Amino acid sequence: MSAGADWRSAGPWDAVVVGGGHNGLVNGAYLARAGLRTLILERRPVVGGAAITEELRPGFQFTTFSYALSLVRPAVIHELDLVTHGFQPLVMPSTFCPMENGDALVLGPDRGENLTEIARHSRRDADAWLQYQHDLTMVARALQPVIDAAPPDLLDPSPEARAELAALARHLGGLEPKVLHDLVRLLTGSAADFLDHYFETEIIKGWLSASGVIGSRLGPMSPGSGLVLLFMHLGQHDGDLGSWAFHKGGNGGFTQVLARAARAFGAEIATGAEVDRVLTAGGRATGVALADGTEVTARVVVSAADPRTTFTRLVDPAELPAQLVSDLGRYRYQGVSSKVNFALDGLPRFPGLVGGRQDHWRGFTNIAPSVEYVERAFDEAKYGWYSTHPFVDCAVQSILDPDMAPPGRHVLSCFVQYTPYELKGGASWEAEREPMADRVQATLARFFPGFDDLVLQREVVTPLDIEQVAGLPEGNIYHGELLAPQLWAFRPAPGWARYRTPIGGYYQCGSGTHPGGCLTGAPGRLASYAILADLADLARP
Amino acid sequence: MLRHTPFHSRVAAANETSLWSHWSGHLVVEQYQISERWEHAAIRNGVGIFDASPLRKYRITGPGAEGFLAGLLARDIRRCAPGQAHYTVWCDDRGFVDEDGVVFRLGPQEYLLTAYDPNLALLSERAGAGGARRGKVVVEEVTDDLGILAVQGPRSHTVLAALAGPELARLRPFELLAARIGEAAVTISRTGFTGDLGYEVICAADDAPTVWDRVSEAGQPHGLVPFGQVALLISRIEAGLLLYRVDFQSARRAENDDQRSTPWELGLGWMLAGIDDQSRPFVGRRALLRERDEGRSRWTMMGLLVDQVTYDAVHHEAGVTPPYAFHPVHTEALVYDGTGADGRDGEAVGFTCSFTYSPSLQRHIALARLRPEAAVPGRQVALEFTINHRYVRIGATVARNPLFDPARRKAVPAPLPPGLAP
Ligand SMILES: Cc1cc2nc3c(=O)[nH]c(=O)nc-3n(C[C@H](O)[C@H](O)[C@H](O)COP(=O)(O)OP(=O)(O)OC[C@H]3O[C@@H](n4cnc5c(N)ncnc54)[C@H](O)[C@@H]3O)c2cc1C
Question: Do the domain assignments include residue B23?
Fold first, then answer.
C-alpha cells in the first residue's frame, strides 16, 4: 500500500490511472517507465481487480475471480521486467476430462501418449487432434500481430490510417488460403460446427467446445462461440500457443508482480481511493475528484475501468457524441459465470483412474462431457435460470503451487456456467447463491464420489458478486462480451477503439478496449503508447 | 559395464519415462517424467531431489592435508573451516583450469573432494611428492562408498528440517551439518547445482535407499518431485554454474590452448581473491598473476539474455512456431557484435558454451565466452539461428552471471514457505 496519504497532496501528476486492475497497473507502469509522474487510484483495499488471491482460511489461498493465465503479452513481461518482480507462470502439463460413464480423457505433455489416449476413444480422432491443433495454431499465430497493435481507425481517411489498413490487408493476404478461411469460420461460426468438422468423440468435443463459451452468453452451438474458442487459444507460454498456466500465488500473485513493477518504475499506487468523476475544463480532462472529495490534478486521466464506468459514470454522457452513447447502450455485458471455490481436506477421488495416479490434477479438470451437456446447460440460462448440470472448469491450484494450501490440503477453483446475471421471475442471487453452489457441489460429487466429505470451506461468487465486489458490470468477466461487433476496431465502439475518448487528455485502457478481456495487459500497454504519442505531439512546438 | 548408483532401486522405480543417460559410467535418469518443465518447476517452486552419486569422491586426510590442498587448489583452503565447504578449481602450471569440484572440510584434518573425472593419479602424485609432507597426507578414492542426494528448491529446507532438525535453518551456504535421517548418519551441506535454496545429503551407500525414502515421504505433501539431468542442466545454466567438459575442458586432457581456459577467463576470478598472498604458492599462481597484471585474458565468461520478444516475432513473421530449447544445447555458436536488427553483420566477439530456454527468466539464455572488451553488461550482441533454412541474427543482451539468483538461495535463516512461517 502507498506510504500514508501523502499522494493526496503530491500533485500535480502527469497521469492519473483510475483503477488498479491488471490493465491499470500495466498502464501505470508503462507511463511511469516513460518518466511520467503517475498515480494509480484503486477503489478497493487491494489492487488486482478481477485478478486477486485471498486467504479466506488460514493457509488456503483462494483465487476469488480469475484463476489461470495464458494471454499475457510477452512484450509486457519483458518490457516491464516482470521476471525481476516475481513473474512465475506454472505451465499446466495435463488436462482431465471425466466422463459420465466413469471413463475419462486425460491428456499430458507427451504428443505420442496423447495420441494413444485419444485413440482409445477414437482412432480417427487421433489424426483429427493433430490437425485441429495445427489448424487452430495457424490461425492463432496469424492474429499475434493483430492483438499486439492498436486497431486501425476504419473511419479515418488520413493516409497514415489507410496505410495501417493496407498493412493489415497485406498480412491477411499473405496467409495460406485455408488459414484465412479457418479464421473466418472461427470468427463467425459456432464452436460445435468447427469441432464437428474434426472429431467424432463426444468427450473431446465437449471439452473443446467449453472453451468456446467461457464468459459468454453463448452455447457451443451458437455462432460466435468459435470466436471465443479461438480467443482462448491466442495466448502462449514458452512459445506454445494455446497453453495455460497458473501463476505462482494465483492470479493475485500476478497482479502483485505488476504492482511491484509499477512501483519500481516510480508509479504511486493508492488503494481505498474511489474516483467519483473526471474533472474537465474546456473539453479536456484536468484531473479527478475522489468520492471523499479529494481533487487530484493531472495532465492525463486514464480509465482502467469498464466502458460503462468510463463513459457514463466517470464523465457526464452529455459531454459525449450521441452516437457513442448509443453504441455503448447496446454494448453487451450479460454475465453468465460464477465461481465456487473450495478448501479441501485432500484430493478428490475419481474411481476411473486407479493406482494412486495424481498427474491428471496438474491442469484444468473439465466437466463438460459432451457438446450437448454444455448446450443444455446454456438452454436454461437463455430463459433466465442457472444450469441444473453446469459446465465446471476445475483447477486444483495447490498441486502446481504448494504455497496455495497447507501441506496435504488443497484448494479447488471452479469456474461455473451458466448462471445468468438476471434471473427470471424477479428471483435474486442473494436467495439463489447457495442453491446454485449446491448444484455445483452435487455435480462434483457425481464425478468424484465422497467429494462432500472433503469440503472444509466453500466460497460462492455469483455474477452479482462479480459486479458488486470486483466492479465488472453485470458480472461479465471481460468488461463486455467477446462478440465480433464489439471487438477490435469496434471495442468498445466504432471510432473509439484507439484508447482515446472524445474528451482530450482522457483515455481508456480496461478490458473493454482492444484486444479485450482476460489477463493480457495488452490494453494497458497499447493505451500507454497512444498516450505517450499524444504527449509527444503536444510537446512539439 | 554401466554401474548403478546407491539410489538405483529407488531411482529406477521413479523413472516413468525409461529415459536414461550415462554419467561417469553410471546409469542416471535423463528425466523421470515426460515434462522436463514440471521437474524444473519443482526446483524453482517446490522441492526436487536429484541423485548426484556418480561424482568421484576423494577422502584426503592427515596432518599434511591442509598444506597439500592449499598448494593445489585455486581457492585458499586455509579459509575453509571445519564444517564448511568450498567450490574450487585446480589448475596446471600455466594457470589453465584442470577441473572443478567441491571440497567439504569434515574435520581439521579430513576433507572430501568431489570431481567429475578420475583425479587419483594427480592427487596421489602431488601428495606423495612433497618432502615435508611425505607420509602426512593420505588420499583415497571413496566414490562407491557414498551416495549424494541433492534436495533443491524453495521447500528443500522445510522438508529436510523435518527430518534433520531445526539446526538446519541456520546453515549458511557452503556450511555442513552432521545429522541423522532416520537411522542413517549423514552430512548435509547447503550446496547444489541449481542456484536455488538447496542442500546435498551425503550418506553411506548402504543407507541411500532409506535416505531417499525418508526424504520422499517428508516431501510428499510439499509436492516433491525427483528430477533428472535435463531439469538440472536448465537450472544450472540459469544459475551460471559451469559444467566441466561443456563450458571448459581439462587442461591436462585438452588438445590445444584454444580448448584451455583460466579461472579469470571463466568468470572464476573471485576464487583468486588471495592470489597476492605470498605465503601460499599454488599450482598456476605465477601464470595467473602474470595474466592478470599483463591483462592477457582472452575471454570473459558472461551470460546472454536473448531478446525473446524479437525471437518470437521474427519466427511468427516467417510463419513458423518459435522453437524453444528445453534440452540445453551444448554446442558452440558464435556471438556477434550489434543486435543484428539493422541487417549489418557485426564481428564475431565470442561464442556460446551452453544455451537453453529458461522458464525462470522466460527467455532463451546462454553462457558465453566473450572478448573482454565485449564483456560489458548491457552490451547488445546477436546470435545466429536458422529460420526456414536461412540464417537470421537475433539480438541478445550481455549480463553478469548468475542470470537467475533468487534471494532465498543465500537467505539465513532459510526462508519458510508462506503459510508455514510462524
Ligand atoms: C470469475 C472470473 C473468472 C475469470 N477467469 C479468468 C482466467 O482464468 N484467466 C483470464 O485470463 N481471465 C479471466 N477472467 C477475466 C479477467 O479476470 C478480466 O478480463 C481482467 O482481470 C480484467 O482486468 P482489467 O484490469 O481490465 O479490469 P479489472 O480487473 O476489472 O480492474 C478494474 C479496476 O478498476 C477499479 N475501479 C473501477 N471503478 C473505479 C473507480 N471509480 N475508482 C477507482 N477504481 C475503480 C476496480 O475496483 C478494479 O480494480 C475472469 C474474470 C472473472 C470475473
Answer: yes
